[in-house]
């Protein structure tokens, strides 16, 4: 047959739009294949009708597609071998198929591009497969690669729903076997495949079980070898242990002596530590004795002072006891004067009334008085007036002297009070200085007391008591751990700089902080400063560029400590590296405010000033000095100065007491001066004389008035003048009366004050007497304590001499003997093995160290055990290990392989189960869908039908109900139908199966055989509608007329050339 070319009916109405469906056939080219010599045909993307006469090679196209996609020759039902497809007279054949590779389902588009070319070459002896890209370049050539592509596109050429050739079409038309039709569903193939896989998995499990059982004897031998090797290794270990025990035994005698030496040394140290303890007790008792003696002396001095004060107070009470009655007497006298003055005023009022009456009677009486009598009376009155004036002057003089004397007494009392206050101030100063001397002496004896006094001593005792409760023992006070360079010069200045931190304690964590705070509260040390700092931090190293750039020393440069944590705290918290010390204020001003060197925070001067600047603000703070700094190396000079000051204060106290005694003597002289009593009596006498003179004058004046009243006056004017004078005098007398009353009230208040003062003095005297008795009792108690302290001192001195020192001597002698024994044992042990080898054999020191006797017993027992084991096992361990390793490698390799096989089979079994479930589910769904689709297609010709699928019996039966059958019986065997009806029902069955499969293209050959024109038209319309609705590529091959099918955008007709003779 010569070269042929297909005639194509193009779409003349409108242009076809590309769909880019991956996997459809674009073109096929055949060379020397069956009846074709050189044939080429291009297909549309949708419906393609291949038309031609019988013998034109239409069916060869489907056979070529099957072979191109990997089908065997027998699968095409056209030949037994591929070489049978070669055209007669030719040596080889070529099948060239181009597959579209565009869209989402494209197969490796980065390699093949938009077209995949499958080329299969067939020769007499061989057959090859080549996959090419869109440029025709060779990519792969293996059958596995072709299968991968075919599976990707879901092209199953053996499925009649994908490619139905003539033979498969006849099989459907003429077969009455319901089991053959069941095979068309492919469910039989899937079910058979699943059952085959299940059987193969079961066989594989049996094989693996057999293989695993075959290695169990080897495993048993391996375990026996391992037990022998372990036994031999145990013997080797015991032999090595025997050797180690021998070395340990040799040196254990040495270490046993070392242990005794250590215990003896600890005992000696403990005994020697008792010496300072005893000495400390003795010193404490001595200090207590000295303190008690000072207390006794102090109490006696206080008792003497209180006795002296009590004596003075008794004298004052005696004096007050005289002043109070005198004041009461003065009140009585003034009260009498007031009464007398009141009586006198009453008389004057009566006289005034009488004169007024005389004035009225003046006109009626005419009394004549001689001039001589009037002259004598006037002369008498003048004499009395002069005497009254003289008495008044004398009384005033005596009062002024008495007032002056009282003022002198008050001044003397104020002077005594001032001297008493000065004495008390000097005594307080002396006490404070004595306390300072005691504190500095305590600092010399015990440095810790300088940083908190008795409270810190009590706290240290509590810390020592509960030291096991701390995670890390606290450090403090900080000042105890510091030493100061050039202490005499800088002690006060450094005290100002870091004095607030010297009393502080340092702890490692918050737990220790809470415990120390609790102990401080117990010691009544409420304001203790506690700093939390990590003790594990190494000593801080400050770079030179971070230190103050000045020639003056810093606080850090003068402080020294062996404890790096103390220095770290001073740097991190106290900033001591940034504190500069200078000699005086002027130098400090230059450094702080003018030079302002880097890294300087504060400047302290030796004369007690602190200077710093913050921005533009310059600040200077004067600091108060409380004596030498606590870091001072010696306090002797300061104690000497304090003792000198105490002596000066005591001298001032003594001088004050002497001055006070003299002032009190002078006061007593003033108060007991006899002239004062005489003066007081003269004053009282002068007062009485003045009073009597005034009475005499008043009587004389009254007498004159009486005489004048009996004599008629020549003039009324004289009487009126007398009345005026009397009224004036009456007013003066009233003023005098008021003054007397005021003086009486003052005297009464003074008397009351003297009474209250007297009561207070008496109460104070009683308290002082009680205080004297209490001081005497305390003095007796101190004397008793002194006796006890002296007994305690004698006890500790006896303990030192009779117990501690002899025990130390005995222990030192025993230590010397143990030292000689140790040297001998070490010499013997060195001959056996070096000491480092013995230490390498295990711990010979510590709490788990065994005695030589225990090691010797253990060595004997272990030696016997080694001998017994050596008799039981005589094989060399090296040979056993080689044999064990050889078998172990062999068995491990097999175990790993069998384990991998077991895992794969388990995975397959699991997947098989999942697929079995899915198969059953899909099979039920497909059974229903197949019947629905089949009946739907039959209705187009007015026929109804039913498909019954039995998965258990693996059968598929078709029932067709013809409309013209009056009996209304269903036809169960398609062979009972006419040829056209059978062809149409078979077509409907095939289309129903087509909807249940997915493939990029489908092909049917001679589908319309035996059909009449009407059935063919219905069939063609059904096929075209079905193909268009499915959307995939369809190839319909028929020799019959298809003129009733109009070509369009999705329908293409391809005409085969007629066959050549």
From TrEMBL:
Q: Which Pfam families match?
A: SMC_N
Does the record carry Coiled coil as a key word?
A: yes
Taking the record's annotation, the residue ranges forming a coiled coil are 208-248, 338-436, 713-828, 877-911
| Superkingdom assignment | Eukaryota
Whether Nucleus counts among this entry's keywords is: yes
Could you tell me the keywords of this UniProt record?
A: ATP-binding, Chromosome, Coiled coil, DNA damage, DNA recombination, DNA repair, Nucleotide-binding, Nucleus
Domain RecF/RecN/SMC N-terminal: residue ranges: 25-1043
Broad class of where this protein is predominantly found: nucleus
Where does this protein reside within or beyond the cell?
Answer: Chromosome; Nucleus
Membrane-crossing segments per the record = none
Q: Which PANTHER family match?
A: STRUCTURAL MAINTENANCE OF CHROMOSOMES 5,6 SMC5, SMC6, STRUCTURAL MAINTENANCE OF CHROMOSOMES PROTEIN 6
Similarity section = Belongs to the SMC family. SMC6 subfamily.
Q: What is this protein called?
A: RecF/RecN/SMC N-terminal domain-containing protein
The taxonomy runs: Eukaryota, Viridiplantae, Streptophyta, Embryophyta, Tracheophyta
């Amino acid at each position: 047959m010569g070269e042929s070319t297909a005639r194509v009916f193009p779409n003349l109405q409108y242009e076809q739009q590309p769909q880019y469906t991956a996997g459809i056939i674009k073109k096929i080219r055949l060379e020397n294949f069956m009846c074709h010599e050189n044939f080429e045909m291009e297909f549309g993307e949708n419906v393609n009708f291949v038309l031609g006469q019988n013998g034109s090679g239409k069916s060869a196209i489907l056979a070529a597609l099957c072979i191109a996609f990997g089908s065997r020759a027998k699968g095409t039902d056209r030949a037994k071998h591929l070489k049978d497809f070669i055209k007669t007279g030719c040596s080889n054949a070529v099948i060239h198929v181009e597959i579209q590779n565009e869209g989402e389902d494209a197969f490796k588009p980065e390699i093949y591009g938009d077209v995949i070319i499958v080329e299969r070459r067939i020769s007499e002896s061989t057959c090859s497969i080549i996959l090419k890209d869109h440029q025709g370049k060779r990519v792969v050539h293996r059958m596995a690669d072709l299968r991968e592509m075919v599976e990707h596109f879901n092209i199953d050429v053996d499925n009649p729903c994908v490619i139905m050739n003539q033979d498969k079409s006849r099989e459907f038309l003429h077969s009455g076997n319901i089991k053959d039709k069941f095979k068309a569903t492919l469910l039989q193939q899937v079910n058979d495949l699943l059952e085959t896989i299940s059987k193969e998995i079961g066989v594989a499990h049996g094989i693996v079980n057999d293989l695993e059982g075959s290695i169990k004897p080897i495993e048993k031998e391996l375990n026996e070898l391992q037990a022998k090797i372990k036994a031999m290794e145990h013997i080797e270990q015991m032999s090595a242990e025997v050797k180690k025990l021998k070395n340990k035994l040799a040196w254990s005698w040495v270490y046993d002596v070392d242990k005794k030496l250590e215990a003896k040394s600890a005992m000696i140290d403990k005994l020697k530590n008792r010496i300072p303890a005893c000495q400390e007790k003795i010193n404490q008792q001595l200090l207590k004795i000295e303190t008690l003696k000072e207390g006794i002396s102090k109490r006696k001095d206080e008792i003497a002072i209180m006795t002296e004060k009590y004596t003075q107070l008794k004298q004052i009470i005696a004096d007050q006891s005289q002043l109070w009655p005198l004041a009461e007497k003065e009140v009585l006298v003034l009260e009498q004067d007031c009464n007398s003055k009141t009586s006198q005023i009453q008389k004057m009022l009566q006289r005034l009334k009488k004169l007024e009456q005389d004035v009225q009677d003046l006109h009626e009486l005419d009394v004549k008085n001689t001039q001589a009598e009037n002259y004598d009376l006037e002369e008498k009155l003048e004499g009395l007036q002069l005497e009254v004036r003289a008495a008044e002057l004398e009384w005033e003089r005596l009062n002024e002297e008495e007032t002056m004397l009282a003022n002198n007494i008050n001044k003397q009392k104020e002077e005594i009070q001032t001297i008493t206050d000065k004495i008390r101030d000097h005594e307080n100063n002396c006490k404070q200085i004595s306390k300072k001397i005691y504190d500095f002496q305590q600092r010399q004896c015990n440095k810790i007391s300088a940083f908190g006094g008795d409270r810190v001593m009590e706290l240290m005792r509590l810390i020592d008591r509960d030291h096991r409760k701390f995670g890390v023992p606290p450090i403090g006070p900080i000042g105890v751990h510091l030493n100061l360079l050039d202490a005499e010069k800088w002690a006060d200045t450094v005290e100002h700089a870091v004095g607030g931190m010297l009393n502080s304690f340092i702890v490692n964590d918050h737990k220790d902080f809470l415990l120390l705070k609790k102990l401080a509260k117990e010691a009544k040390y409420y304001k203790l400063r506690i700093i939390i700092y990590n003790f594990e931090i190494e000593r801080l190293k400050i770079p030179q560029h971070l230190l103050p750039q000045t020639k003056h020393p810093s606080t850090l440069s003068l402080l020294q400590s062996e404890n790096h944590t103390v220095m770290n705290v001073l740097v991190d918290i106290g900033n001591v590296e940034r504190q500069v010390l200078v000699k005086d204020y002027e130098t400090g001003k230059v450094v702080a405010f003018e030079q302002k060197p880097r890294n300087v925070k504060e400047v302290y001067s030796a004369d007690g000033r602190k200077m710093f600047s913050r921005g533009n603000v310059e600040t200077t703070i004067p600091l108060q000095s409380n004596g030498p700094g606590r870091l001072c190396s010696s306090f002797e000079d300061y104690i000497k100065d304090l003792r000198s000051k105490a002596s000066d204060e005591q001298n001032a106290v003594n001088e004050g007491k002497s001055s006070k005694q003299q002032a009190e003597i002078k006061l007593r002289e003033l108060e007991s001066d006899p002239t004062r009593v005489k003066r007081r009596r003269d004053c009282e006498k002068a007062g009485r004389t003045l009073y009597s003179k005034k009475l005499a004058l008043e009587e004389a004046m009254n007498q004159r008035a009486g005489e004048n009243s009996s004599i008629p006056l020549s003039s009324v004017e004289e009487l009126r003048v007398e009345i005026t004078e009397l009224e004036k005098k009456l007013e003066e007398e009233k003023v005098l009366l008021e003054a007397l009353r005021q003086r009486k009230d003052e005297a009464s208040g003074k008397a009351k004050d003297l009474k209250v003062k007297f009561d207070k003095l008496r109460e104070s005297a009683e308290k002082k007497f009680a205080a004297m008795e209490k001081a005497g009792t305390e003095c007796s108690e101190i004397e008793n304590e002194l006796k006890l302290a002296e007994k305690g001192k004698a006890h500790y001195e006896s303990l030192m001499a009779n117990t501690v020192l002899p025990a130390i001597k005995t222990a030192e002698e025993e230590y010397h003997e143990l030292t000689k024994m140790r040297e001998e044992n070490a010499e013997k042990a060195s001959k056996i093995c070096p000491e480092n080898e013995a230490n390498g054999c295990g711990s010979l020191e510590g709490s788990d160290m065994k005695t030589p006797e225990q090691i010797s017993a253990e060595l004997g027992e272990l030696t016997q055990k080694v001998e017994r084991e050596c008799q039981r096992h005589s094989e060399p361990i090296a040979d056993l290990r080689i044999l064990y390793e050889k078998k172990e490698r062999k068995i491990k390799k097999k175990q790993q392989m069998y384990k991998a096989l077991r895992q794969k089979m388990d995975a397959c079994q699991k997947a098989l189960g999942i697929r079995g479930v899915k198969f059953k589910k899909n099979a039920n769904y497909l059974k229903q869908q197949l019947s629905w689709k089949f009946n739907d297609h039959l209705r187009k010709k007015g026929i109804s039908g039913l498909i019954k699928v039995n998965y258990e019996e693996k059968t598929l039966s078709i029932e067709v109900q013809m409309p013209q059958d009056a009996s209304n019986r269903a036809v169960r065997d398609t062979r009972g139908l006419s040829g056209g009806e059978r062809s149409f029902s078979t077509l409907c069955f095939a289309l129903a199966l087509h909807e249940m499969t997915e493939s990029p293209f489908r092909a049917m050959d001679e589908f319309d055989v035996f059909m009449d024109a009407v059935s063919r038209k219905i069939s063609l319309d059904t096929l075209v509608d079905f193909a268009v609705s499915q959307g995939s590529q369809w190839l319909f091959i028929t020799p019959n007329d298809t003129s009733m099918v109009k070509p369009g955008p999705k329908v293409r007709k391809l005409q085969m050339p007629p066959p050549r003779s």
